[in-house]
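hiii so um. not sure if this is the right channel but i have a protein structure encoded as tokens and i wanna go backwards to a sequence. like what aa goes where. can anyone help
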């Protein structure tokens, strides 16, 4: 990919500049003293074949595909940076850690293809040694490569339940058509119950229930009592590609699963490079789309400072954010209702820094799964292991309780729990960084994904992808494969690009 347009500064695209300043500079690259004296000016009006609202993974993938097809495109982004739920955080010394979407894994083909196109490599997530569990007040250890260790860790009943019910979930997921779960033969039955009901029917042991809860909190940022069974099954079905069916293990696994690889330079870099290739004038930052109006010939996106006119628009924001845009004419009732029923998960990612990843010396891979505040963690250290970085994920009800505390208490809760898992060396981190996607990020409202309660997919699900005139919907929530992941976002963006190109 061409990366010749150096007028987009790396700092501007990644973030960190003043929102207003960076946005204005990008929108008006030739601002001069003379121009300033002429204020106030009428709102700017710009045109392109295709407009894209949202510069997350879906929006950038859509814009990239439209530009490659030789059509003009303008991306309109609310934040002062690109990437959306994907963001790099700079460490001193040039290293970065990711505070949002990070990992890629097998069958996430579109992500690997884009990475190759842009010239970015991947490297394996650290995955040597044992995983810590905290279930029913007890810490135990299991091996990621030997499932029978779950019998020792969870007890005979709990261990066997995990070994039997997880594959049963995979089997049920195979009955769910990817991209159209509402058409499954048992869609009404499965969308009529929560994952909690399924859990209580299939797991008898307190330990296996607790393990299942922990996975669910991290998968969706929601507890099993909040999520439809059909939604979970569709998520599992989607965790594959056209030749490899999805499984629960591909969602939760490290080597061989969705957490297998990390992206050199950090995941946000992919979308920064795509933005750079589009050119600075064509990625308008700090400009929330307030209104989208369409008529027989055009669509207009209005921001606070400008209006943009196109023949087609890709709205690449999750349903919960689509809800905050005004539409003229009004959205079809069922689409409007969908946006009221697809909440974002309750979610935070906390990075705790140590001089080195000391857990590796003790035969531990840095991964935990547990019933405490931290639902899951991964060793997120840079390739050279300096510093040691523990990435902790907090979801669902655990997030809501933790998020109510002040910063010192939140930090103490996390560090105390790491001590419980990793011993006294975890007590003295050299740094701590938290990203609260729910409550502190108005352009995400949560993470890692939007999810559906019972009745939503069967009642409203087909609206996830159904275009409304000149508006085509993207965002990972509207994908076929890998819903909720960067891969899903890229697939959704590329599908929306095909839809707009067909209608130009
Ligand atoms: C903590 C965390 C960890 C994760 N880990 C992983 C992982 O390891 N691997 C993985 O594959 N996925 C992971 N995910 C999920 C992944 O990040 C998302 O699925 C993906 O990035 C979603 O991309 P998107 O483009 O669909 O949506 P978004 O990233 O939400 O992009 C939407 C964009 O639209 C903008 N926007 C919103 N409203 C407006 C408006 N009115 N006008 C203009 N712009 C607007 C937003 O600012 C945003 O930039 C994680 C997510 C989180 C939060």
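sure thing!! here u go:
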């Amino acid at each position: 990919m061409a990366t010749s347009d150096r007028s987009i500064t790396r700092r501007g695209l990644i973030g960190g500049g003043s929102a207003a300043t960076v946005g204005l500079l990008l929108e008006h690259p030739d601002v001069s003293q003379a121009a300033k004296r002429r204020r106030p000016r009428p709102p700017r009006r710009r045109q392109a074949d295709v407009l894209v609202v949202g510069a997350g993974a879906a929006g950038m993938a859509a814009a990239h595909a439209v530009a490659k097809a030789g059509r003009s495109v303008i991306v309109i982004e609310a934040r002062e940076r690109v990437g959306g739920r994907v963001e790099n955080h700079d460490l001193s010394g040039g290293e970065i850690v990711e505070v949002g979407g990070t990992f890629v894994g097998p069958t996430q083909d579109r992500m690997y293809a884009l990475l190759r196109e842009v010239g970015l490599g991947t490297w394996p997530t650290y995955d040597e040694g044992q995983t810590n569990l905290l279930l029913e007040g007890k810490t135990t250890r299991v091996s990621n490569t030997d499932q029978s260790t779950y019998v020792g860790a969870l007890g005979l009943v709990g261990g066997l339940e995990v070994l039997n019910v997880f594959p049963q979930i995979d089997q049920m997921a195979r009955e769910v058509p990817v991209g159209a779960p509402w058409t499954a033969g048992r869609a009404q039955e499965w969308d009529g119950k929560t994952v909690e009901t399924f859990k209580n029917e299939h797991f008898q042991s307190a330990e296996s229930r607790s393990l299942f809860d922990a996975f669910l909190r991290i998968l969706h940022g929601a507890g099993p009592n909040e999520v439809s069974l059909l939604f979970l099954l569709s998520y599992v079905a989607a965790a594959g590609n056209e030749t490899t069916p999805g499984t629960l293990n591909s969602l939760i696994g490290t080597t061989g699963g969705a957490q297998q690889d990390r992206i050199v330079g950090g995941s946000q870099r992919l979308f920064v490079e795509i933005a750079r290739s589009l050119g600075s004038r064509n990625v308008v930052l700090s400009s929330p789309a307030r209104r989208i109006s369409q008529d027989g010939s055009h669509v207009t996106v209005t921001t606070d400072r400008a209006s943009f006119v196109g023949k087609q628009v890709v709205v690449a924001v999750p349903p919960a954010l689509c809800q905050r845009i005004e539409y003229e004419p009004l959205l079809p009732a069922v689409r409007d209702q969908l946006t009221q029923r697809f909440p974002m998960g309750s979610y935070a990612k906390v990075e705790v820094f140590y001089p080195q990843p000391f857990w590796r010396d003790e035969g531990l891979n840095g991964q935990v799964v547990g019933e405490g505040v931290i639902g899951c963690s991964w060793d997120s250290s840079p390739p050279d292991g300096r510093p040691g970085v523990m990435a902790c994920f907090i979801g669902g009800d655990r997030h809501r309780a933790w998020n109510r505390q002040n910063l010192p208490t939140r930090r103490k809760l996390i560090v105390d729990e790491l001590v419980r898992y990793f011993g006294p060396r975890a007590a003295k981190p050299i740094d701590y960084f938290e990203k609260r996607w729910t409550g502190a990020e108005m352009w995400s409202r949560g993470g890692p994904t939007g999810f559906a309660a019972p009745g939503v997919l069967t009642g409203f699900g087909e609206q996830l992808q159904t275009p409304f005139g000149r508006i085509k919907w993207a965002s990972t929530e509207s994908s076929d494969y890998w819903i909720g992941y960067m891969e899903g976002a890229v697939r959704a963006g590329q599908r929306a690009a095909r839809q707009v190109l067909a209608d130009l």
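oh and Residues 149-173 form the longest helix (25 residues).
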